[in-house]
Amino acid sequence: MDSTLSAYMMKNDGYDIIGIHFNYNQRTQEKELECFNNICDELDVKERYILDLDFFEKLGASALTDKTIDVPTSGIEKGVPVTYVPFRNGIFLSMAAAIAEKESAEVISIGVVEEDSSGYPDCRDSYIKSMQQSINLGTKDETKIEIHMPLVKLQKSQIVQKAIELKVPLHLTWSCYKDENAACGLCDSCRLRLNGFKLAGINDPIPYK
């Protein structure tokens, strides 16, 4: 939901969108890929990169990529949760930077939200800004890439409201960590999403168990 809204905000600001999606053996990989393609169709995105990474499955250490680790469903975890994938956003941003340099893109847009950053260190505003500096130090002198974080200071309810304002097809988005046919409604991501819709006074259009 967050990355989709981020893309719609950039489109609304007049940017042409290059879509990047990562298959990294996450539990809901097939559903996320389906959503990516459907959303790109809605945005009329012509240029799409679908990148297959087996690294994270081999690495393990996360309930998203290691099926021997259960996805927690008892409530929002304190500290860094077991669904944290080590340095995932850093790796994704590095790959996005290579694509941006090749495509002469001006901006990488990422839907990180600091509401999540107490658990996910790679969602912090300060971290993303440091990645922007590193990317520009490690690319050609003429390459100037900004990383936009249009949602970083928003609450989930504000994200829902902004998505409704921009007519984002929320029924095409997916947040569940566990399931692909109907969202579990109990994992951290589902709980954050459902609470955001509740506070915004709007019904979530995706199916739940």
Question: Your description of this structure?
Answer:
This protein is mostly helical and 209 residues long. It has one domain: Rossmann fold (3-Layer(aba) Sandwich), CATH 3.40.50. A two-stranded parallel ribbon has the order 1-2. The longest helix has 16 residues.
Brief account:
This protein has a single domain, classed as HUPs (Rossmann fold), CATH 3.40.50.620. The chain has 7 helices and 4 strands. 40% of the residues lie in helices and 8% in strands.
| Spatial strand order of the main sheet | 1-2
Distance between the termini: 19 Å
How many DSSP helices?
7
CATH C-level label: Alpha Beta
Which fold name corresponds to the CATH topology?
A: Rossmann fold
CATH-level-2 architecture: 3-Layer(aba) Sandwich
Question: How does the helix and strand content classify structurally?
Answer: mainly alpha
Instruction: Describe the main β-sheet briefly.
Output: 2 strands, parallel
Shape: globular
